[in-house]
Amino acid sequence: MQRSAVTGSVRARAVLGAALVSTVLCAVPAGAAPTGDAGGAAARGAAVAARERACPIVYFDLGETLVHTAEDGGTGYRAGAAAYVRALRERRIKVGLITNVPSSWGATDAERAARLKQEVDATWQGPVPFAWQDFGDRVLTPRTEAERKPAPALWQRAKAGSGRCRVVYQAETAEEVNVAASLGFVPYRIGRPHRPAYLPVGWVDLLGR
To answer: InterPro entries given for it (predicted)?
Structure first.
């Protein structure tokens, strides 16, 4: 490889790193900044409180973000998705889904989530089952057709249910990512060339520090 190409590659990685740092650090509350007074009990208490307020919750779109649908209608994880969700959960970072389904699938989020699980599992072809248990009751779906994304309702409900935790939203479409960003989410568009497939776990973890 030519030296100029290597230099360009290194420079591109540096630019990417700076962009990710900016994305995450600009989203961290001012109170979460570390203090140099290691001996101050009040400062330590404030740091703990800030971390509790900043606890990250990562929401995803489902189709073509975590799950891929093949031409034959079969479904399975996108490359790297299962390992990514597992890495988040290993750090005790909560995860959730914000996804469009027909509002007629149920009267509550739980009912619609149960129907969604049936539909996905019925066509699942991946070697590893979808980890529904990791998402708990954080599977948000439209109560009415008017709530379907890109309407803001689902993101607003996710944010309202997250307390003071920072919320992240990852999806494959620019429109959804932009709406989430406008509502106070830390946004990340997946599947972009020359960028990590998902927002690196280390950067997500930093939101809670």
So the answer is: HAD-like_sf, HAD_sf
The residue ranges of the chain whose pLDDT is under 50 are: 1-39, 41-53
Please name the residues in contact with 68: beta carbons below 8 A apart, sequence gap of 6 or more: 75, 76, 77, 78
Q: Are 155 and 186 in contact (CB under 8 A)?
A: no
- The answer, as to whether pTM is greater than 0.85, is no
| 62's tokens | 């489902």
- Ranges of each domain in the chain: 55-206
The CATH code that applies to domain 55-206 is 3.40.50.1000
Residue pair 45/32 in contact (Cβ under 8 Å)? The answer is: no
Instruction: Report pLDDT for 32.
Output: 34
